Amino acid sequence: MAALGWLTPRRRSATARSVLAGEASAEAARKSSLEAQEATQAAEREPEFPVIGDDRAAAFFDLDNTVMQGAALFHFGRGLYKRKFFETRDLAKFAWQQAWFRLAGVEDPEHMQDARDSALSIVKGHRVAELETIGEEIYDEYMADRIWPGTRALAQAHLDAGQKVWLVTAAPVEIAQVIARRLGLTGALGTVAESVDGVYTGKLVGEPLHGPAKAEAVRALATAEGLHLSRCAAYSDSHNDIPMLSLVGHPYAINPDTKLRKHAREKDWRLRDYRTGRKAAKVGIPAAAGVGAVAGGTAAAIALSRRRR
Predict the structure, then answer these.
(1) Alpha-carbon dihedral angle through residues 219, 221, 225, 227, given to the nearest 10 degrees
(2) What pLDDT digit, counting tens, does each position of 82-132 carry?
(3) Residues near 82 by Cβ (< 8 Å), separated by ≥ 6?
(4) 170-174, 226-230, 250-254, 294-298: the lowest-pLDDT one
(5) Taking the mean position of all CA atoms in its chain, how far away is CA 55?
(6) Which of helix, strand or coil describes residue 110?
(7) pLDDT of the residue at 263
(8) For range 189-218, the mean pLDDT
(9) Residue 285, φ and ψ in degrees, nearest 5
(10) Is the peptide bond before 50 cis (omega within 30 degrees of 0)?
(11) 245 and 236 in contact (C-beta within 8 Å)?
(12) Which residues, other chains included, contact 16 with Cβ-Cβ below 8 Å and sequence gap of 6+?
């Protein structure tokens, strides 16, 4: 039997390093358990939001970097290039502007203006119906996989509560409507390009739906729909949308840029960040979809479901 002793595991005394490893593991497990308990308790303390059956409330979502990673206009440009609407040099400009937006996390007014001007010149002379059809294809090719699951869950929570959900974006309204329809949202407010007899003229109607113009669009829609803005929610990543966020009773900073994050903290607004795997920062009273959820819609939906029961 002695010859088989090598099959029997030998007992080894705990070294200082193994003791340290064990203690660290136990502390990590304890900390994780406490955080889960705190998240559950916080969710149970929160008032129900969105309020189920409140048809005088609605939700307004910015699009670029709030609902979708990157800028819709740039993804649309890629799709048009693939269909030979313009030349390679124009694609390079679109690519640079998109790279800037994704890396800087902010909207550069000059870049955005250039992109709009380029898009208008590209679609001039094309039929509106043609671009709407192409928009459906481009959504599947370049946009569908860039939807933030966490933000999508927030929108779904409002829909499940019986509320309307609108996209509000500086992107062309035709693109915005395609995205809203594919996500099952109510509709979209977007920049309107002029058309005559169903053909684009290369001009805008008014100005891009950006900054204060978004707030005016939301205000006008709320009046037309009989909504109470104090019971509505708005979501955006950009400080440019502070006018829109300030209109409603439930403003959210989603994947915020530096200026919006600072403003949200000062105003005690809710904040959600879906860009990394770390736990979402929480500002003010925790609310829909969230406590502890960052990596996607599943955790958000669980928190909302728990709150409704």
Answers:
(1) -30
(2) 888 876 665 555 554 545 444 444 555 555 555 566 667 778 888 999 989
(3) 141
(4) 294-298
(5) 23
(6) helix
(7) 97
(8) 89
(9) -75, 125
(10) yes
(11) yes
(12) none
C-alpha angle 211-214-216 in degrees, rounded to nearest 5: 115
Residue with tokens 């669980």: 302
User: How far apart are alpha carbons 50 and 161 in whole angstroms?
Assistant: 6
Cα distances from 136 to residues 84, 87, 126, in angstroms, run 17, 22, 16
Give the DSSP H or E segment for 159: helix 149-160
The label of the residue with tokens 């509000």 reads: 168
User: What is d(CA 72, CA 78) in angstroms, rounded to the nearest whole number?
Assistant: 10
Q: Which of 64, 241, 257, 273 is catalytic?
A: 64
Cα three-residue angle 293-260-271, rounded to 5 degrees = 20
Cβ contact 212:243 at 8 Å: yes
Identify whether the C-beta of residue 120 lies closer than 8 Å to the C-beta of residue 57: no
Query: Locate tokens 């950009």: which residue?
Result: 238
140 is known as an active-site residue: no
Q: Quote the CA–CA distance of 90 and 81 in Å, as a whole number.
A: 8
Q: Are the C-beta atoms of residues 28 and 203 closer than 8 Å to each other?
A: no
Q: Which residue has the tokens 């005559």?
A: 196
The structure tokens listed for 243 are 């006018």
Residue among 247, 293, 246 nearest 272 (CA): 293
142 Cβ contact list (under 8 Å, min separation 6): 75, 76, 78, 79
Asked if 235 contacts 256 with a C-beta cutoff of 8 angstroms, the reply is no
State how far Cα 267 lies from the chain centre: 20
Q: Which residue among 54, 62, 237, 241 is the active-site one?
A: 62
Of the two residues 207 and 136, the one the predictor is more confident about is: 136
Rounded distance, CA 224 to CA 99, Å?
A: 38
Dihedral of the CA atoms 237, 242, 244, 248 (nearest 10)? 100
- Rounded to whole angstroms, the Cα distance separating 137 from 277 reads 30
